[in-house]
Every structure is written in C-alpha cells, then in structure tokens.
C-alpha cells in the first residue's frame, strides 16, 4: 500500500508556515515533535480538525455504525500505521470499510485497482462503485462491467411494466441479447421463449433448451409487430381495453393529422410559420437510451421532437435535423416566440434540444409547466406524470409501453407514432382543462 504522503505533506507545510521547530522520527512509535507550547496547541487544534473531517468522510453512508473511534484514527495517523490497518481490513474481507479509508486518506488510484483485484464476484456492486468514482480504466475491469451488464439486462427483461413483445422488438438484430433473453426467459415461460428463438433463428448454449426449440414446429409472430396499428400498444396486446386508455381518435385526430418530418426538405416554411404563429402548442420529446442501463451507460439523446397544434401534430427527427441551419434557426425563434409552449418537464426538454445545437442556459419565453398547474389543483398529490394527470382529470390513462423505444430506428411503427403524437397533443388538452 502507498503511504500517506499527501496528508503528512499538508501537516508539514502547516508546521513550516508557523515557523515551528520540529523533528519527526519515522518509526512504529508516535512521531516525536519538539515545539513550544503555543505552537503545539495551535497544531493540535489543526490536527484535530483534520481528523474530524476524515472521520466524517469515513463514516458517511454507513448508517449509524462507527467504523473507528476518532482517538484510534488519530493514533493510526500519527504512528503512520493506516496502511497496515487497511491491509488488515482487506485480509478480513472488509472491503467497503477499507475503501472508505483509502478514499478519505487520498491513496493513489493504483491502490484502488489492487483492491478490486482482491475482491470476488459477490462484491461486484462495490467494485463498480470504485471503478466509477476513481475513474479506473474499463479495460482492466471487463469482468465487473460484463457482470453489471448482465444483471442490468436481466432486470430489464423482467420489468413487469414492459411486455416481453416489446423487449423482443428492442433486441431485434442483436443475436447476443436475443440469446440472453431466450435463456433467461425460458424459466418463466418456456413457450414464449421458444417462439422468440424460432422466429429469430436463435441458438442457445444450453442443450436441453435447444432441443425443445428444435422440437417446436408451429411458429407464431410477435403480436406487437404483426398487429401494429395507430392505437395504444396495450390495446394491440389486449392487456387493456380501449375505454381504459386515452386515444387520439377520442379527439378526432387520425394518422393523417400526424406529419413526420425526417429531413430539412420536409421542414418547409409553411410548417414553420404555422407553428410559430399558433397561439398554443403542446410539446414533448423522445430520447434513445442505450440498453441495458448501467452506471457506465452513455447519456440518452433526444431523437424526436413533437409539436402539437389543435388539429395537427408534427414529429421532427432531431437526429437528422441537427446540422440543418433552418432547424437551428427555427428552434431559437420558437424558444423566444409569443407562442405558448406547454409540456411536462418542458424547460429541461427544451434545454436538451438547444444543447444539441450548441446553445445552452438561455432564458426561455412563454413556457408552461403542467406539473405546476396540477399541483395547484391537487396540492396533496405526490405523482405528477402525464398519465397520472390524465387519470385524475379524464378518468383514463396514457399507455406507456412505447416509452422505451429505439427512437433512432426507422420506420417507426404506427403505435409508436400514436404514442409520440399523443404525448404532445394531450399537453394542450390538459392545459385548457386547467384553465377552465
């Protein structure tokens, strides 16, 4: 282990600054310091403060358990025995406590890698914490990262709110993820797992599972993909009835009223002027997220920008429009226009859009946050998401199956278009309901 050079150096600098005569003898005994009484007291106050700070850092996030007494900590530091103490902790497999000492005492990063190498599989979560906090090299920790990836993928597969049909769609084209899905889902529902394997021509390593896949003759299609329609996905999957969910057709909005804008050529002046001159607009965004999500996943990026007018909804492909000067100029004009812009977490969404074109932290004009209006009407409610607002005001929910979609992929399914368009359009309806 590396010694406490930084800490001792800071003490030494403090002593020198106060012109204290000192002589430190490095041994297993206490450092012997020869000082006059005045400066000894000043140093003791300073040293006690440093020990207190270190003690607070070491004890943080360990509930109320005290890892070490402050008197013991002071003794270890003065005797330069912290390295030995940490080594004893590691020998006794008290890795979290050891890490807290190393972190508080500012050991060099090489020691953190050594600590990780000594830990075993059951300590993977702590290992990932150390890797992230100490910015260690991913190449030296592939085993930990692979473990985290598999655990996150398994958690994602079995999230109850995401239908297995949707999970399969998200993994299409990635045979490794589909194989993982089949092998893990086989324990829960053999028939569904076998069907996923058959229609995607997936081979698995487990011979017993593979034999059952080979024995299957009848192959069905993914209901979500086969029966795609301009409807909520839960209606397509028959997990909910139409009268339980809000549909665009409830407001006389059909597929023809939703316009996809995939490139600059489709972003014509007529559309831009129609948006900029509208008294009210509902807006929302959809982002692509790397799956599965781990501590080391890249940040999500906005892929779709939805703008709703009373009888028309525009879906802008921001990925393809980012380099368009016409789009960039429109975004800036729209941000400061007199048009009322209504949404949920609207300022955050719009700042992300502006950040994508290299513009940040602007004061936005005429933006309305729906969650604030909801709290004014229902001050005791804790949830404020759009679906909950709809349930409280209209007695129906928004279908959220398509929320986790690959919004980069084209073409979008009709159900995805319905979902994205409705999220923006419902903002107008909620706002005008609050106004009444």
From TrEMBL:
Domain of life of the source: Eukaryota
Record GO biological process: nucleobase-containing compound metabolic process
An example Gene Ontology molecular-function term: nucleic acid binding
CDD domains: WRN_exo
Domain spans labelled 3'-5' exonuclease: 258-436
Protein name stated in the entry: 3'-5' exonuclease domain-containing protein
Organism lineage string: Eukaryota, Sar, Alveolata, Ciliophora, Intramacronucleata
